[in-house]
Amino acid sequence: MAENHKIISKSTLLPFILITALFFLWALPNNLNDILIPQFMKSFELNRLQAGLVQSAFYMGYFLLAMPAALIMDKYNYKTGFIIGLLLFATGCFLFWPAASTGQYGFFLFALFVIASGLAFLETGSNSFIAVLGDPATSEHRLNFSQSFNPLGSMTGVLIGTVFIFSGTELSNIQIDAMKSAGTYSAYLHEEIIRVGPPYLVIGSIILLWAFLIWRTKFPVEKRIKSADGNDKGKLSALMHYPHFLRGIAAQFFYVGAQVGTWSFMIQYLKDYMQKSEKEAGALLFISILAFGIGRFVATALMKRFEPKKLMGAYSIFNVALCAIAIFMPGIIGGWALVATSFFMSLMFPTIFALGIKGLGPNTKLGGSMIIMAIIGGAVWTPLMGFISDKTHSMALAITVPMISYLFIIYYSYVGSKPSGPLYKAEGTNI
Asked: Is residue 219, in this structure, part of any structural domain at all?
């Protein structure tokens, strides 16, 4: 265990703080998506499969830009990648205003893609930067601490969406027909769409400020680890020889798909089976993400006594059981079981990431980018869950998708994450 190792040193404290704050900031748009899905279903009259395309457009940005982000940071440095990512992030936020003004669903999807393109730089760089910013023995602890601020951003995003995007007006079919007859329904839909714009303008302004702060801050000089052939640059071909890394990509694909799919359709599940209004369901989603945040801090503390991968395996077992309850006991019990899954999700992303890149040496940035690319799981599992729900008329049956995902994470926790590969070193750091 890492009881006698420092998590962070004083010399790298300021960059650590600035980059840890990014974990909060990129969570805002990630979880505003969970509000956008029901809002767009109402504003654009979409089915659940169509609404799931919000996550497809968003996570496609991650998938397509994660590798270019890694290559840029490998050629230059982490700081360059962070600034590029923040500028793209802000641009996407500002695009929400013309998208809202024109009322075009496709424009919104494009804006989300641009936001996620920026986040690909931030997540690819931040996770790797934090993981290697110090003692390798405390990489999981350090990354879990920084990731602990991610759920705070998630809760803030849900709160912003629930308060400022949801109007609280939910019309019955009779009321809709009456408004159509009176010629006022189109104006109502436009008002619902316009509500989406202002929160993103504020977020975009904050992101520009943070880009300026990072630009003006001195970052530590990156130390390059050389491979056996003397090369200090990453090689994709070399990564194929690390089984624990390849399985980590798969584990992250399953995990992100489970998390994104669950949060994207939690409001619909709660409305279907607990007869909650959109604002009440939004409040329960907030509670679920609060549990996620508490779980992250609890996990960070527990890692001082328990091996991170074994703790993740135990958390995954709990989530399989909770998903089964949500599937077979839809209603109050199933709803609260689904809410509770967030607590046990909490440590999975950073732990999978840290385990996956451990021992990659000069291949760390490229390896980290490929694990970030696995976020595409959110783009695949979310519309799949929507498709299952549309075809079976059961949101509960769609929860089988995250349940299967947790089964794979159990395997990765206990078997697949054992470090291996020709360049694996128990000691060493990239910075």
From this structure: yes
Q: Helix, strand, or coil here: 431?
A: coil
**pLDDT for position 234:** 56
pLDDT band at 80 (very low <50, low <70, confident <90, very high): very high
The tally of CA atoms less than 13 A away on the side-chain side of residue 334 is: 22
The pLDDT value recorded for residue 59 is 87
User: Quick one: angle between helices 13-43 and 197-216, nearest 10?
Assistant: 160
Length in residues, the chain: 431
CATH code (residue 369)? 1.20.1250.20
Residue 217 lies inside a defined structural domain of this protein: yes
Provide the b/e sequence for 114-124 (b: ≥16 CB within 10 Å): bbbbbbbbbbb
d(CA 399, CA 266): 10
H or E element in which residue 29 lies? helix 13-43
- pLDDT tens, residue by residue, 130-171: 877 877 777 767 877 887 788 889 889 989 998 899 887 878
Is pLDDT above 70 for 272? yes
Residue 167 CB coordination number (10 Å): 14
pTM across the whole model: 0.76
- Residue 98 resides in a domain: yes
Residue 425: per-residue pLDDT? 46
Residue 3 forms part of a structural domain: no
The Cβ of residue 223 has, within 10 Å, a number of other Cβ atoms equal to 11
Average pLDDT over residues 18-34: 92
Q: What is the pLDDT of residue 112?
A: 95
Strands (E), 77-124: none
Sequence-ordered alpha helix ranges (H) in 303-415: 308-328, 332-345, 348-357, 364-373, 377-392, 400-411
Distances from the Cα of 105 to the Cα of 43, 111, 123, angstroms? 9, 10, 26
Range of the domain at 288: 10-416
